[in-house]
Specification:
With 237 residues, chain A is α+β, with helices and mostly antiparallel strands. The first copy, chain A, has six helices and 15 strands. In chain A, the strands form three sheets. A seven-stranded mixed beta sheet of chain A has the order 6-5-4-3-8-1-15, with no helix packed on it. In chain A, strands 9, 10, 11, 12, 13 and 14 form a six-stranded antiparallel beta sheet that branches. The termini of chain A are far apart. Chains A and B meet through helix 1, helix 4, strand 15, helix 5 and helix 6 of A and helix 1, helix 4, strand 15, helix 5 and helix 6 of B. Strand 15 of chain A pairs antiparallel with strand 15 of chain B, so a sheet runs across the interface.
Chain lengths: 237, 237
């Protein structure tokens, strides 16, 4: 269904470095045409737009994934059949500006998800790309230390992203999480900052229905995924 | 589909006392025949077994809900089409014993959900029932202070429950969460302790697919639901 979120695995699992197994791309794209994720052993950043999947690698290269053929898997991904309910020009001088604009465009949605997309000319896009695990189960915090960053100027492309509720941190990434890919499909990554060159086209939709698929393989099953939780246990114990 | 979990709202919302709105019972039971939940303004404990819904109130009375007729709503509920994949006799001298038995019966499932049911004769069942909110948005922690407790001895009935992953605390209740209802449908509540009288019948199933429905009403949208989350933000910011 349109604007329902298919959520494969949880961010807490990625944090623990669970990156060997996952959902085959060809199954993933049956659930959505718009989204984000990562690749086996966290080798780069995944972006999915208009049903096409791209791998944005730390060497700066972009690989178009043939998701019908590949047997390779994504250990984490979020996708939706994106059907924007609101489309409007926006103007922003940094990532926080864009975030503030979205909060105004979608009032009373902080406890639900947003899917969004921004298309146009950007005067600046700063990205990072994950380098991939150097050993099995290397944690995301370690990978983060050697991320590669790029800055693009005067570039046409698309931002693809999700806003996730604060209280679902650990399942998703709380707040705004967005990836970028150029119109030429030759530049992109996980967005650290973005500046629109004049007005660009924003489109978005609220998502209230989440299909969370927990992995079933032993790598996931054996991971130690934790969350401190005394408060709830007091009243529900 | 069998053994998929339909999850209406999140425990963090209940904790904040969001109890005026919810899912109509007749919609809820389209998603499952086995489950737990609560009622408008947290008036008692919900148990759903074999597709029948009961309200277990703090005065000790049990009301069979006509879910086809009612327009009333549940602010929180978890239900599944329960089709046990494992059925076996069990023996336990307290709730922890039962929990330990389940851990042995279902190895490598700690990061997924379990649905379970125990039927038979119990030498002791200790329950509590929530009293209901005395004012709008009274928090669960306050209700908890005046819960009513009951102890039943030599009683036939059913335990209906779920085990939820530790890292999903706040979405669900981490660990085991079970309600009891007697065969006579005249006693029950949220289980604090349970002792089997000899062997009783355990049945269970793993659940990996979760359909999380976030509410769309203003009461939910305006609630302040929080979870501290610095770690993930460091690597995903």
């Amino acid at each position: 269904m349109a604007n329902e979120l298919y959520h494969y695995s949880v961010v807490s699992s990625l944090m623990e470095g669970i990156g060997e197994s996952g959902i085959p791309y060809k199954l993933l794209i049956q659930h959505g045409d718009h989204g984000l994720g990562t690749f086996r052993r966290m080798a780069g950043e995944m972006i999915c737009l208009d049903g096409n999947v791209y791998q944005m690698k730390s060497d700066g290269s972009i690989v178009a994934i043939d998701s019908s053929a590949g047997t390779d898997v994504a250990p984490f991904a979020m996708v939706t059949r994106f059907r924007p309910t609101l489309t409007t020009p926006v103007l922003f001088s940094n990532k926080q500006d864009l975030s503030d604009a979205m909060t105004k465009l979608f009032p009373r949605t902080k406890n639900r998800y947003l899917a969004f997309r921004v298309d146009g000319l950007f005067s600046k896009i700063a990205v990072r790309t994950a380098d991939g695990q150097r050993y099995k189960h290397e944690k995301l915090r370690e990978l983060h230390k050697r991320q590669t960053t790029y800055e693009f100027t005067n570039i046409r492309g698309s931002l693809i992203g999700f806003r996730s509720p604060e209280f679902l941190q650990g399942v998703s990434v709380a707040g705004d999480h967005l990836h970028f890919i150029s119109d030429e499909r030759d530049r992109g990554g996980h967005v650290l900052d973005c500046v629109s060159d004049g007005e660009v086209q924003f489109s978005g939709a609220v998502m209230s229905t989440i299909h969370l698929q927990l992995p079933e393989d032993d790598e996931y099953n054996d991971a130690e995924l934790k969350l401190d939780s005394d408060g709830i246990r007091v009243v529900e114990g």
